Amino acid sequence: MRTTLLALVMPGAALFLRRRYGAATLVASLHAATLAVLLLSWRMGTLYATASTTYGKVGLGIVGFVLFLSRLRGVWAARRPVDRHGDSYWTMVGRRFGRDAKSHTGGGVLLVLAFVALLVPFVTSDPLWMDFSATLQRPSATHLFGTDMYGRDIFSRIVHGSRISLGIGLAATALNMLLGTFLGVISGYFGGIADAIIMRLLEILNSIPFLMLAILIMAVFGSSTGMLILVLSVFALQPARIIRSQVLELRESDYIRAAKALGASQSRIILRHLLPNAMSSLFVVATIRLGQNIISLAGLSFLGLGITPPTPSWGAMLQEGRALILQAPWIGFFPGAAIFITVLSFNLLGDALRDALDPRLKM
Amino acid sequence: MAGYIIRRCLQSLLVLLAVTVLIFGILKLAPGNAAQVMAGLSATPEDLAAIEHRMGLDRPVHVQYWKFITGLFSGTLKPATFPDSMIGLVGRKLLASVELGFVAIVAAVLLSIPAGIIAAVYRNTVWDYGISVLSLAGISIPVFWIALMLMVIFGGWLKWLPISGRGDLRYGLSILTVDGWRHILIPAMSLTLIQMAMNARLTRSCLLEVLQLDYIKTARSKGLREIVVILKHAFRNALLPVVTNVGLTAGMVFAGAILTETVTAWPGIGRLVYQAIVQRDEPLLFGLTVIIALFYQVTYLVVDLLYGYLNPTIVYD
User: Fold this and answer.
1) Is A359 on the interface with B (CB under 8 A)?
2) What is the ipTM, given to two decimal places?
3) Residues 147 to 206 of B: which have CB under 8 A from any A CB?
């Protein structure tokens, strides 16, 4: 009871008491960061969303409640033993995942981000609205992250940009994983000529920098959201290789042989036996790819070939800030920090997921 | 062994051919062509046709491709937007990229491997958490952002370092002059950070795996000092994947780090690739593709051979 209360008031305190200083500092600073984000958005809600302040507060209230719940869950999970006799694999995975400080940090930040992205219209002002009487303002109470050369509010633009980054990132990763799994399974399970073709294809894609190919395609075909998703998902097929090696390993296992001996059809073996067991690495790869895709997307936008202005996107904002980086560093600092924090959260989540699913998996 | 190398080289040639076809195909499939970019918006159809004819764009695609390939080998293929010859231009830029990559990789190896060892040896302590979190942060940082921030800090506020270019050269190299070193630091640091993070993570996880093996127990029970066990017994075997990773990333960085070089105006291959694409310089892009793909293939071969050398249980035949 005491630990639970302590954890609610000051997360990480219990760890301090247990002399696990590293983990304690990590947890405490993470929760401090989430609280700060929450407080900031609350302030923005009252400052900007004049017409919909109530909605803003309700929305942020929901964010707060979910965060509270997640923390509660974390505290609860931390008080149970990790592995107990008779648990199923996924129960153990869930528990290990729930105990990991990394998953709490990454998950917490992403949760806030997801809510902010969903509740965008209630939280901030118009990201395209220019105020020429307030250009290049330093960060202040009215403009939390300052304003750019057109007097647009950077905080508002970053919040709006989160929709693009997360949206395109998610779509591209989903498509990427689908394609990668398909190719990986075909190549690993059936082998032969299909395997040879797919592997040669991957080899060709591996012989030029992905970014070079992406820049070229975006430059000659023109940039659009669909094209971006396509480029990010079709030309980065590392997942296929990972799935393939996983399938190759599983194919020789006893239970697959048993299924074959019992006369199970190819599709049944693949869908019921192979894929569920390759799932753990799929999850891990997907989280890490998401982060990578967000960076690639920002990189393309930064070079002027991704999301084009005036649509607020983190990469394009960074590009706008580049010209004035010495005079007004905040224009470039905040969008980059947003990318960094988002990608870091995905990587933390992926790391925790990997540790929970299979500590031996290396990626 | 010799047979293996020859077979690998032949395979690489095929891959190289496929890569050039891929890039050429993308260029030709795209709407518009280089002549339109060159002629500008106000050109009449006659002007455009004349330019297209001069550049050979009105001929069938396979003829154009063949002309590019033969031109590349006979040296007649020249960049459209640069006055230099292909070899001269690419060679000069390649030198800059390799130089930058070399500094970054050496720094990354020197810093990351000790960090990885410390994290693995002091597992689950503050050191381990600190290094793990830092290296996770390292792989999450967008390289173009960290380069800009280094410029702000070291160029803007502290005024220690210049923020772009290569500075004074000697024999075409920056690292031989003091001014050149001042210029190389910011791009090298931004590249190093990510390499460092990847290597430190890899060193840690590989070392942890090796430390659980039986021969480590044997070494310890023989009464060897811990430092000898770790450095002489465990580290050597944990080094393999790290060497592979360093080799692969080195090849990639040598062939041009597009974003880093563009942000810091480092005149290397990466920046040239970006310029060639944006200006639609098809001959230059074609030449660059060949060079870069060649670099990648050579890297893969060298890494595989190195792996066989370091791990005698692997035999290539």
Assistant:
1) no
2) 0.87
3) 148-149, 151-152, 155-156, 163, 202, 205-206
Q: What tokens were used for B109?
A: 């190896």
Beta bridge partners of A147: A153
* CA separation, residue A3 to residues A6, A30, A72, A98, B54 (Å): 5, 18, 12, 17, 80
Is any Cβ of chain B less than 8 angstroms from the Cβ of A98?
no
Q: Any idea what DSSP says for residue A270?
A: I
Does residue B19 sit at the A interface (CB-CB below 8 Å)? yes
A18-50 b/e (C-beta count within 10 Å ≥ 16 → b): eebebbbbbbbebbeebeebbeebbebbebbbe
Q: Is B30 on the interface with A (CB under 8 A)?
A: yes
Answer whether A117 touches B (CB < 8 Å).
no
Identify whether the C-beta of residue B260 lies closer than 8 Å to the C-beta of residue B185: no
- Domains of chain B, earliest start first: 2-74 (no CATH), 91-310 (1.10.3720.10)
- Per the CB < 8 A criterion, the answer to whether A310 and A330 are in contact is no
CA distances from A36 to A237, B173, B192, B201 (A): 38, 48, 31, 30
Region B8-36: mean pLDDT is 85
Distance from CA of A325 to the nearest CA of B (A): 7
Give the count of alpha carbons within 13 A of A169, CB side only: 28
- Ranges assigned E (strand) in chain A: none
Residues 236-265 (B) with a CB less than 8 A from some CB of A: 241, 252, 255-256, 258-259, 262-263
- Is residue B210 predicted with pLDDT exceeding 90? no
Indicate whether A39 pLDDT > 60. yes
Chain length of chain B: 317
* For residues B198-218, average pLDDT: 87
Contact A220 B297 (CB under 8 A): no
For B260, what's the count of Cα atoms within 13 Å in the CB-facing half-sphere? Answer: 28
pLDDT of B111: 92
Task: Search chain B and give the residue with CA nearest A102.
Answer: B133
CB contact B277 to A (< 8 Å) = yes
Backbone phi, psi, residue A147, to 5°: -125, 160
Write the CA distances from B10 to A140, A199, B5, B6, B251, integer angstroms: 62, 16, 9, 6, 20
Q: What's the per-residue H, E or C state across B171-238?
A: CCECCCCHHHHHHHHHHHHHHHHHHHHHHHHHHHHHHHHHHCCHHHHHHHHCCCCHHHHHHHHHHHHH
d(CA A256, CA A270): 9
Contact A302 B278 (CB under 8 A): no
pLDDT for the residue A71: 56
- The nearest CA of chain B is from the CA of A208 a distance in Å of 6
Answer yes or no: is pLDDT of A230 > 80.
Answer: yes
Across the interface, do B148 and A321 touch by the CB < 8 Å criterion? Answer: yes
CA A229 → CA A110, A294, A345, B227, distances in Å? 21, 11, 21, 50
Determine whether the interchain pair B136/A351 forms a contact, defined as Cβ–Cβ distance below 8 Å. Answer: yes
Question: How far B292 CA sits from the closest chain A CA (Å)?
Answer: 7
Exposure string over B44-60, b if 16+ CB within 10 A, otherwise e: eeeebeebbeebebeee
For helices A21-48 and A154-185, the axis angle rounded to 10 degrees is 120
Q: What pTM did the predictor assign?
A: 0.82
Between positions 89 and 128 of B, the ones with CB within 8 A of A are 125-126, 128
Looking at residue A274, what DSSP letter applies? Answer: I
CB B144 within 8 A of CB B259: yes
What would the pLDDT profile of A260-271 be if each residue is shown by its tens digit? 888 888 888 888
